[in-house]
Specification:
Number of strands: 29
CATH class of the largest domain: Mainly Alpha
Number of helices: 14
CATH topology of the largest domain: Glycosyltransferase
Radius of gyration: 27 Å
CATH superfamily of the largest domain: Chondroitin AC/alginate lyase
Shape: globular
Structural class: alpha+beta
CATH architecture of the largest domain: Alpha/alpha barrel
Length: 732
C-alpha cells in the first residue's frame, strides 16, 4: 500500500475473519453450557511459549477417571491418567504442533474430540514435579523457607539498597511496641473485622521480619507477643472462615509467615500454640476451596485462598500433619489455576485495581513457592506476560485504573510498589521499564522488602514494544499515541468473554479516553463497596459506561459470565489502530446485532462506528460520561474538558438525535466524598429496529479551533471518511 505524508488510505472490513476450520468449534462432552465451569485449556489452536502447558477441562458429574491422550509432532502418542479435571504434564515438550483429547471412565464414559495447540520455538521450560517431590523439597528446606539462600536472598538487601525502607519499617515496629495487640475482633461489621486483621497482620509481620533482619531480641519479643495474640483469636468467631473468609486467611497467613521468620526465637510452647492456630484455620480453607475452585475457578477470594493455602503448606510441611496434603494437593492446583482471570497473554479480566491487589497478595506466596518448594512461577507464561498487561492498561502517568471495580481509583502507591516488586520477581524488558518509571511506592512494605535481590537493570523503554496491543483472552484493547510518553493519549476498548461476572461490569463494547494524565471519556461511578445499591444499579450497569443502551438506559445482562463479548479483529501499526468488538450475547437476546469498531489515527483522531439491531423498535442511546459538565455545541456535537485535556465529540452520521446530560446517579454512592459526575446521552428521537452511529472524537480539541473539513460518504455498505488528510474506508 502506498503512503504519502498527505494521505493515508485505510481500507478496513468490519467483522470477524473466518476462523481456521474446526478451531474452537466442538460439540463434545467438554463443551458445557455453564460458562463458570473450568475451561478447556490449552485453548484450541493456540500457540504457547511455555513447555509444557497446563491441561484443564470441565469436570463430569460424579466420580470419574480421566485419561489425557497427547499426540506429539510426528504421530507418537502418550497418555496420563488422573481423577482430577486438570493435569500438569510431567515432562518438557519440544516445539511443534500437538493434538490432545480426554477420555473419561467411571460414572460417565466418553471421549472428547481432538483439540490442537502449538508450542513455539524455544519455549520456556516449566515442569512442576509431582506433589510428593514438592513436599520432600519443602521439608528439606531450612528455615526461613520464605526466601532463597542464594544470591537472590533479600535479607542482605535490607542492609544495602533496601536500607531506607527497612529503617522505616523498624521505626514503625518501635512505635507500635507501646500498642497492645489487637483483641479478637467481634464487630458486627465484616469490613471492620477484616480491617482489624489487616492492621494486626502488618504489625506482626513487620516485627517478625525485624527479628529476621536484625536478630535484636526486642523484635523477637514483639513478634512473639503479636503472633501469640493472633493465635488465640477464635477460629469459630468473627475472623473464622465461615464468618469472614478473608480475615481468616489473613490470620493463618500471618501466623505461618511469622512462624517461619521467628522459629529460631520462639519457644516450643509458643510454636505449639501458633501451629494450632495455623492448622485449624488452614484446614478449613483447604477442605472448602480445593474441590470447589478446580471445578468453578472464577472465584476472586477463592483463587487467592488457594495460593495462600499452598504457600502455608510449603512453610509448615513436616510440622503440621495436614500440611503434607496442603502441599501435595494445593500447590500443583495453584500452578494450574494461578489466575482464572486471563490466560497465557497475561491478561486480567477482573479489572486493573483488582489485578494489582491480587498480584500484591500473590507475590509473597510466589516467593514461598520458589524458596520453599522450588516452584518458580516466574517461568509460567501468564506470569511472564503479566507485566505487559500492566504496562498497557495502567501505563506510567495514567490517572486511574481501567474497567471493573475500582476503575476510577488512582492507586499510585500500589501500582509503584507492585510494579517494582513484580519486576524483581519476574524481570523482563517490559517489567524493568515499567518499574523504573514508578516512584510512589512505600518502600517499607513486604512485597518490596522480600522481593528477590536481583539486578534491576537499566529499565530503558523496549524499542520493539508497540504503542498498542490486544489481549484476546480477556477481550481488552489498549491504543496509545506513545506508550513511552506519560502525556500520551490513550483509548481503551473492551468486549470480554468474562461478561459482567464478579468484579467485571456490563460494559462490553465500552471505551475510555485519557489524555495528558487526565480522564476525559470516563467509566462512571464509584466502588463504594461490593453489592451496594450504587454498585448494583449504576456502577455495574451499561448506562454507566461509554456504551450503547436503549429505551431509557436498558443495557446488557448483569453480573454473569454468559453476558459476554469478544474482540473479533485487531490491527495495529505506527499510523493507526483498528479494533472490532461484538457483544450480542451481552444483551441477553434483546439485540440481534451489537458491533462497535474503533479506528485510532495517531496522534489525536478516533472514529467510533456502531451498528445495533433488534427484532423490535427501540430508541437508542449513545452514552458518554465525564468528570466535569459537558459543553453542548449542538445536538450532535459536544466538548469534554478536564484541566489541560480536552476532546471534541461529533456525530458524523446517526439517526436524528438529541443530546442531554445530568450530573445525578439513579442511586448515589454511600460516601459524600464521591462527587457527582456528568452523564451525556445522544438519544434517537424516534424508535427504529436498527441504528448506525459514526462518531468522530478529536483529542486535544474543544470544538472551537479550526480543523480541516471532514468528509463523510456512504456508498452501499461502505463508509468513506476523509479526516485530517487521511482517508478511511469502513466496509461492513
Amino acid at each position: 500500500m502506498r503512503r504519502t505524508a498527505a494521505a493515508i488510505l485505510l481500507f478496513l472490513t468490519l467483522g470477524a475473519r473466518a476462523a481456521a476450520p474446526a478451531c474452537g468449534v466442538h460439540s463434545d462432552f467438554l463443551n458445557r453450557s455453564d460458562p463458570t465451569l473450568a475451561p478447556v485449556r490449552p485453548i484450541d489452536c493456540s500457540t504457547i511459549t511455555q513447555s509444557p502447558p497446563e491441561f484443564t477441562w470441565p469436570p463430569q458429574d460424579g466420580s470419574n477417571t480421566y485419561q489425557l491422550i497427547l499426540n506429539f509432532p510426528g504421530g507418537r502418542a502418550e497418555s496420563r491418567t488422573t481423577t482430577k479435571n486438570w493435569l500438569l504434564w510431567d515432562q518438557a515438550l519440544p516445539a511443534g504442533i500437538y493434538t490432545w483429547q480426554v477420555k473419561v471412565t467411571g460414572k460417565n464414559k466418553d471421549q472428547s474430540e481432538t483439540r490442537k495447540f502449538t508450542i513455539a520455538d524455544n519455549p520456556v521450560p516449566f515442569v512442576v514435579g509431582g506433589g510428593g517431590a514438592i513436599l520432600a523439597r519443602a521439608k528439606e528446606t531450612p528455615r526461613p523457607r520464605t526466601w532463597s539462600k542464594d544470591l537472590a536472598n533479600p535479607i542482605p538487601a535490607l542492609k544495602a539498597e533496601r536500607a531506607d525502607g527497612f529503617r522505616m519499617m523498624l521505626k514503625e515496629v518501635d512505635d507500635d511496641m507501646t500498642r497492645s495487640p489487637q483483641a479478637d475482633p467481634k464487630s458486627e461489621s465484616k469490613n471492620s473485622n477484616y480491617d482489624d486483621s489487616v492492621t494486626e497482620q502488618k504489625r506482626a509481620l513487620a516485627a517478625a521480619l525485624a527479628w529476621a533482619g536484625t536478630h535484636d531480641r526486642k523484635y523477637g519479643e514483639e513478634a512473639a507477643r503479636r503472633l501469640m495474640a493472633q493465635a488465640l483469636w477464635s477460629p469459630s468467631g468473627a475472623t473464622g472462615y465461615s464468618a469472614n473468609d478473608m480475615a481468616n486467611r489473613n490470620v493463618a497467613w500471618t501466623l505461618a509467615l511469622g512462624y517461619d521468620w521467628t522459629s529460631d526465637y520462639l519457644s516450643e510452647q509458643q510454636k505449639a500454640a501458633i501451629r494450632a492456630g495455623i492448622r485449624t484455620r488452614t484446614q478449613a480453607m483447604y477442605a472448602d476451596i480445593l474441590p470447589k475452585l478446580t471445578q468453578y475457578p472464577y472465584d476472586s477470594h477463592g483463587n487467592l485462598t488457594l495460593n495462600i493455602v499452598a504457600a502455608i503448606g510449603a512453610l509448615m510441611a513436616g510440622e503440621i500433619p495436614e500440611a503434607d496434603d496442603w502441599v501435595k494437593e494445593a500447590l500443583p492446583a495453584a500452578v494450574a489455576w494461578t489466575s482464572p482471570w486471563g490466560w497465557q497473554d497475561g491478561g486480567f479480566a477482573n479489572g486493573t485495581a483488582q489485578m494489582f491487589w491480587d498480584t500484591g497478595s500473590n507475590l509473597v506466596a510466589w516467593y514461598v513457592f520458589r524458596g520453599a518448594a522450588g516452584v518458580d512461577m516466574a517461568k509460567k507464561e501468564w506470569v511472564r506476560n503479566h507485566a505487559r498487561f500492566m504496562a498497557y492498561f495502567v501505563p506510567p502517568g495514567t490517572p486511574s485504573n481501567n474497567f471493573g471495580d475500582g476503575q476510577e481509583l488512582n492507586l499510585e502507591e500500589v501500582w509503584s510498589r507492585i510494579g517494582k516488586a513484580f519486576a524483581l520477581f519476574a524481570p523482563s524488558p517490559v517489567s524493568r521499564w515499567y518499574a523504573r518509571q514508578m516512584n510512589k511506592e512505600d518502600p517499607a512494605r513486604l512485597e518490596l522488602l522480600l522481593a528477590p535481590r536481583v539486578d534491576p537493570g537499566a529499565g530503558n523503554f523496549p524499542t520493539d514494544l508497540p504503542n498498542s496491543a490486544a489481549f484476546p483472552s480477556v477481550g481488552w484493547v489498549a491504543m496509545h499515541s506513545s506508550l513511552a510518553d506519560p502525556d500520551r493519549a490513550s483509548i481503551y476498548f473492551k468486549s470480554s468473554p468474562y461478561g459482567s461476572y464478579n468484579h467485571s461490569h456490563s460494559d462490553q463494547l465500552g471505551f475510555v479516553v485519557n489524555h495528558r494524565g487526565r480522564r476525559l471519556a470516563i467509566a462512571s461511578g464509584y466502588y463504594d463497596d461490593y453489592g451496594t445499591r450504587h454498585w448494583m444499579h449504576w456502577y455495574k450497569q451499561t448506562r454507566a459506561a461509554n456504551a450503547i443502551t436503549f429505551d431509557g438506559g436498558f443495557g446488557q445482562g448483569h453480573h454473569d459470565k454468559r453476558f459476554s463479548g469478544e474482540i473479533t479483529r485487531f490491527e495495529s501499526n505506527d499510523t493507526f489502530d483498528f479494533a472490532v468488538g461484538r457483544a450480542e450475547k451481552a444483551y441477553d437476546g434483546a439485540l440481534t446485532r451489537a458491533q462497535r469498531s474503533i479506528v485510532y489515527l495517531r496522534p489525536n483522531v478516533v472514529l467510533v462506528h456502531d451498528v445495533v439491531a433488534s427484532a423490535k423498535p427501540h430508541t437508542w442511546e449513545w452514552n458518554i460520561h465525564a468528570l466535569n459538565k459537558i459543553t453542548k455545541i449542538s445536538e450532535t456535537r459536544i466538548a469534554i474538558k478536564n484541566g489541560p485535556a480536552q476532546m471534541c465529540v461529533e456525530m458524523l452520521s446517526a439517526p436524528d438525535v438529541a443530546f442531554n446530560q445530568t450530573d445525578q446517579f439513579n442511586f448515589p454512592p454511600q460516601s459524600a466524598k464521591m462527587p457527582n459526575q456528568w452523564h451525556g446521552v445522544f438519544a434517537t428521537t424516534a424508535k427504529s429496529a436498527s441504528a448506525e452511529f459514526l462518531v468522530l472524537m478529536r483529542i486535544g480539541s474543544d470544538c472551537t479551533g479550526k480543523a480541516a473539513p471532514t468528509s463523510v460518504k456512504k456508498q452501499g455498505n461502505a463508509w468513506q471518511v476523509e479526516v485530517d488528510g487521511k482517508s478511511v474506508t469502513l466496509q461492513d
